[in-house]
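Hello forum,

I keep getting stuck at the same step: I have a sequence, I want structure tokens, and every attempt I make locally crashes halfway through. Rather than fight my setup again tonight, could one of you with a working pipeline run this one for me? It's a single chain of 464 residues.
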Amino acid sequence: MSDLPRIGLLGIMQPLYDDMLPGITERQHAYAREVADSLEGVAEVTVAPPARGRADAEAAVRGFEDAGLDGVLVVMLTYGPSLRVTRLFQHMRLPVCLANIQPESEITDRWGMAEMTYNQGIHGAQDTANAMVRAGLPFDVVTEDRRAPAFRERVGRWARAARAATALTELKVGVFGYPMNGMGDARVDESELLRSLGPEVVHIAQGELRRTMEALTSEEVAELLEAERGRFEIDDRLSKEELDDHARLQLGLERVLERHGCSAYSTHFDALGEDGRFARLPMAAASSLMARGYGFAGEGDVPAAALVYAGHRLSGIGHFTEMYAMDFPRDAILMSHMGEGNWKVARDDEPVRLIKRPLAIGGLDDPPTLLFRIQPGPATLASLVTLGGGRFRLVVAEGEVLDEPPMPSLEMPYGMFRPDSGVRGCMDGWLAAGGTHHITMTPGRTAADWESFCTAAGVEYRPV
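Reply #2:
Ran it on my machine without issues. Output:
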């Protein structure tokens, strides 16, 4: 099965021109199929029959919703009066992009009334966009030559953003324990989050995790450890007991999350430490589960876990991290966390190491931890800010992970990030916008992708 975004193409026209131009509906439907074919490789496109009136349009979008598509690409096949789709946009559940395109990119002296009619989508787009604005519907717009590479690129970006936004509406975030006491930027009203963005919080008893760990067979544990020996450099100091417990934590977490239908989760070290049934924290488990596509955040931070999952759906890789300290001579920020990080962002010229690592947090035994440095190159930071009243803001910073010498004493995933706006400008903007300390990093320059995501999800976008 393809992992491309799945979108529906809603082509809008009207019967007014049938007598003047017999066969116009079939002709313009073929044009819609050409548009869909041109998007091969960036999205899977389902083309609905031409919407020639309100019933056609509403039936087409119901079909897109029933098929579980990620978004709706609206294309004007001719002019179509907006009142026929006004109620549809008032109740639209999927993200929308209006493709302001036409069959021919150039007007020539051979054009007559027929060519004018076939290519008159621009004033239909104006009428339709006006209806979307009046309905309060957030939507993207792509004005482009449909045959230009930029059209594929821009629609592809929107389609990925639509997939991420739609995925959040279906997301369940499992929380083991409770949020870190006193940590305010991670707190969110769960009903508000569900109503506004869609993620549902599932509180999971830690005893269920413990029982699931104990029920695992020795063969299942051995199979996971054998796979990790082929993937990671294993520290010789790790005992059989430590490796066994690490494997049971990872397998147990995934089994419990699958049982509850959760694609993201968060744990808090104090909650596990005070429980009394766990020997160590699941540090390496978080890293490998992120690499498998799960969202994750520490300390019970549900919005951050949801955003890491959105990062997976938007760009292919979401990495959980935070800003540890500023380096003014380098104009950079040390990015790390207590031990959790998606090993898919690791440098490709160094092995990822599973190490024995002392950690005096949580009051437990040493947690096996995956140690790596982040691949140098372009990267983007994003933080989901809860504003209250159902409003959310995304703070985004583009920059570069520097190619720096190792820090031998640092035993957790890390990298030096230089913001394009510099440490001073980035941090002034980040703090003024209320950016949180738990952050999603995505490889590459993905600010434009995050901006499209914000439009699709109804979130305020704030670059810094």
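The longest strand covers residues 377-388. If your local run keeps crashing, start a new thread with the error log.
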